[in-house]
Amino acid sequence: PKRELGIGTVAVTGAEIRAWLGQDKIVNFQSLFAPVAVTAEVPSQPEPPAAETGQPWKVAVQAVEIASTQVAFEDRSLATPVELTFDDLHMAMHDLQVPFKGAMPVTAGFRLNQQGTLESKGTLRLDSLQAALALKLDHIPLQPFQPYVDPFVQLQIRDGEFTLDGELIFRSRHEAEPMLEYRGQAGLNKLHLADRVSSEEFLGWTALSLSKMALDVAPTTVKIGEIALRDPAIRLVTNKDGTTNLSRVLRPSESSAAPTSKPVEPNAPKKPTAPTPVEIAAVRLTNMSATFVDETITPTVTTGITDLTGTIKGLSSRQIAKAEVALTGKVDEVAPLKIKGQINPLSEDTFTHLTFVFQGVDLTSVSPYAGKFVGYPITKGKLSLDLMYQISKQQLVGENKLLVDQLTFGEKTDSPDATTLPVRLAVGLLKDRRGRIDIDMPVRGDLNEPDFRYGRVVLNALVNLLTKVATSPFSALGGLVGGGGEDLQFVEFQAGSESLESTEQRKLESIAKALEERPALRVDVTGVADPARDRQALALQKIAAEVQRRFTQGGTKNLQAVPSPSREFELLSDLYAEKLGKQPMKREELPGGKSVERVLTADELRQQLFPAMTVDDSELRGLAQERAKAIREHLIEQGRLPDERVFLVEAELAASDKPQIRVHLSLTGS
Questions:
Q1: What digits encode the pLDDT tens for the residues 11-37?
Q2: Closest CA to 665 of 512, 454, 463
């Protein structure tokens, strides 16, 4: 009559249970307890008398015990079913009361797929569904859960174990407190993920541990004392068709069904969401390696970073927080690498200020790139980089300092993808007497721009630099001696002369000084003569020489080396009459319509004589060659350049638009 039931112990031992989740997302046991539909007609019965109302039954069970139980579970809702076996399932619950009230002590555990184990101990409250448990998971295998990740990535889980050790609190009612709290540590060890297409390993590590965790959910906050990652290794491959294994593994598999989504109203307002509060005291990285394989190049290029070790301290989603980064490693297992600075990747406004220092990276490993895109393979050389990058308010400011030591090219490859820039010239202009190329290359960018690409920004800056150097070589050369350098590309001569004036001599000495700093450069000298102005000047020189010859043959008894003006006029008049067959007279009109004849002046005699003085193209080319020789001799004798660095190019006849005749110089790389 009291409606009370007391039970000492309910015990189940050695049970074997088989359960599955069907494609309709319904567990098989659910249908077993569904009401049976009554289809046959039954004779009507008088309604039973109404049950007497009274207090509900009370049930008290001192202990519920489950031992040596096995559950075989299969998830058939997936394309590939998941099979999980829970054996050695055991549980003990004390002081169970119905109606539910109060917290009950509980312990439970099992072994998963003959490998991993779970043990828990704590209290469970059923009236408001609350749990406070100490959880410990050891060696939980990841492989059985492969079908759950198949719809999202094309990765094969070859190995991996999950561990957990901490205190878990769950509250179904959580108005004043988080729904879920976890304090403790977690780990993911012996991870090996392979690319399902190539079957090559993509990502793996020895151990990933998260210690001193404080995780709250609803509302969500994350605090982690330390994240330690040991021996992580990633392999990034660019395939022959230009695709990458990274894009492939992140693409859902073809067999996965396309996710359905509800239509979104176009004008639906988006509520701004505050970033989840996250604090990570330290990230400790040990012996990381990254391998980069490029199969688009022949032969295949393989480079990588190894032994990357260090810490990132003070990661936080707070805007003012700045985490300190200190990492060291090696490039291609030899060249030292250092990364230092501050980052704040978890805040709403991402901040980065990092320096990257690479020392002595061997360039022969990327020689196939040079052969394809530069047109020459690299047979020798080392690269050192000192890079600084700062990102604040989506604005990128970068400083790139490149030092290339002893860069040496091989024979031309005739690659159709090679640049048309004179690469050897650019390298020769940049390489100093010690065989080093020192480049300071700043970059700027706005991360808000839709088409912003960091690699493209840096590549454009480098191409622009090389283009400027290659297309304006004397400007670059002039920077070594001061000044713009534009006037260094030519040497000026007076018409008809091959003599270097003092200003031009100083210019050549500046060129020689600059070339001394750039031993990989050669200078080509192209002699030039103006067909009109030089022809006239040479004709006048012939007139003067003929006058001097006649004066010398005249048997003068004085000691004059040159004729007096009156004697010169006489000799010019004789020459005029001889060459033109007429007297040196000129008729002029006077005011009033009268005309008179007068004798030509000495200058007029010369002007009318020079067309009669033959100057052929061979003489002009000879003048052009003499000018080039004068430049070469000055560079070698006064500038002290080695003879093998100065070359004479075939002379040319070209009209000049300047008062002087310009002989052009050009630079070539050796």
A1: 999 999 999 999 999 999 888 887 777
A2: 512
- For residue 638 the two structure tokens come to 């006064």
Within 13 Å, how many C-alpha atoms sit on residue 20's CB side? 11
Q: Looking at the predicted structure, is the pLDDT value of residue 121 above 70?
A: yes
Q: Which tokens belong to 407?
A: 């860069």
More confident residue, 613 or 378: 378
Burial of 365 per CB tally in 10 Å (0-12, 13-18, 19+) = middle
User: Is pLDDT of 42 > 60?
Assistant: no
- Model-level pTM? 0.77
The kind and range of the H/E element at 108 are strand 103-112
> Would you state the pLDDT for residue 557?
54
Angle at CA 557, nearest 5°, toward 553 and 562?
60
Is there a contact between 147 and 165 (Cβ–Cβ < 8 Å)? no
Contact by Cβ (8 Å): 281, 271: no
Place of tokens 């599955």: 20
265 φ, ψ (degrees, to nearest 5)? -65, 135
Q: How far is the C-alpha of 405 from the C-alpha of 363, rounded, in Å?
A: 10
DSSP state for residue 634 in the 8-state scheme: I
The amino acid present at 25, given as its one-letter code, is K
569: how many CB neighbours lie within 10 A of its CB?
Answer: 18
The set of residues, in sequence order, having a beta carbon less than 8 Å from that of 103 and lying 6+ positions away, is: 123, 124, 125, 130, 132
Element (H, E) at 459: helix 454-471
List, in order, residues 6 or more apart from 526 with CB less than 8 Å away: 628, 649, 650, 651, 652, 663, 664, 665, 666
Q: Residue 516 pLDDT > 70, yes or no?
A: yes
Does residue 330 register a pLDDT over 80?
yes
